[in-house]
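Apologies for my clumsy wording, but are you able to produce some protein sequence, whichever is easiest, and the tokens describing how it folds?
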Amino acid sequence: MGTRVDGLTDMFGPEGPSLRELAVQALSSVEHGYDLLAPKFDHTPFRTPGRVLDAVARALAPLGPFDDGLDLCCGTGAGVRVLAGLCRRSAVGVDFSAGMLDVARRRVRPEDGPAIGWVRGDARALPFTAAFDLVVSFGAFGHFLPRELPGLFAQVHSALRPGGSFAFPLGAPTPANHRAFWTLLGFDAVMRVRNALWRPPFVMYYRTFRLGTVLAELERAGFTTELRALPEFGRRDDGSPRARLVVATKSAPEQGG
């Protein structure tokens, strides 16, 4: 959804990671890198901004009620808080970083509401079958290469009950005349060079998750998709939304008659 201006301030403040810590993370595997970053992750621009979380919660509320929800690649648990406000029975976070899950367990406390659960696992091999009515994900797709999307979406499809939904926010492409376009392009180029020279790879790309490809792969996995504008983020000069919520629904079995 883009980089927060306020997050950049936090990132290099006393509570955020140092440049040295970021460099060590970037030269680690994805899993170990996030284990290292976990204690300071919420003080970086990489955490999904609260206004995005709130906008998604408002957009999903009319689609409920939901019984059980899963946050895919939950990190420190911000998305699980969203699920806790939408689901009646359980809200579960799955992530392959033990460090991120440790932070999530401390920061997201069960209160009056659904049961909260945490599972260490790989999103490409989910240990669930027809267990959820809603799966969400926030800002995690840069960690998956385009060739991994079919398998990832198949896993989510399997984890959902018939009629369940997979939802995630997606920002509009940054125009080429915007500085952020070149910043993201440069970041991806640096990561490609890093991964060509250093092992293990650190998969984190900002410009590989393209809407047309994503919709096609979701439909191929068995979902029916729709796009819902997130009005809180306004519209671009051409009138299109700056941010959308992708809602992919697993078909319910037809009733015999």
Observations:
- The beta strands are 66-72, 87-95, 115-120, 132-136, 160-171, 223-229, 243-250.
- The chain has nine helices and seven strands.
- The chain has a mean pLDDT of 83.
